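We emphasize that the prediction below concerns an isolated chain of 141 residues; any contacts that depend on oligomerization or on bound cofactors are therefore not represented. The input was used exactly as deposited, without trimming of termini.
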Amino acid sequence: MDPTKKTNSDLLPVLFSLPVTNRLNLPSRAELLPKIENGEIDHLDFRARVFSPNTKNRNPYRFKNEDLPAFAQSFEGQPYLRDHNTWTIDARDGTLLSATYDGEWMIADVRLTTRRGMLDYIEGKMDRFSIGWFYDDAHCS
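Result of the prediction step, given as a token string:
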């Protein structure tokens, strides 16, 4: 196994959540806030369901089912951004450690590294996710 890859057991339980019904399983603010403020915690890792081709979204484009596993993996190592903002470094709150497709959902392991991102997470502000991509071509159905 690649030692640089994180697994479920590598993520600290207090920092691990899975938004299942538009709600995060948040760690205690009282416990984490002082640790973030004084630099004792320099990142938070969490897992999220970030995209499903079977759910309603604003984008009319669809992906071929056979392309989804590789598409999900292409997000690994990419920045975790606020609002698809690619034009300013201040929009970057961390990195996608990994992303996989389980047949229904794209699942991402996210590492938050900014104070703002970590605080937003423990305050429950990260309960919706969106993916962004660039493409070379499109096929009409």
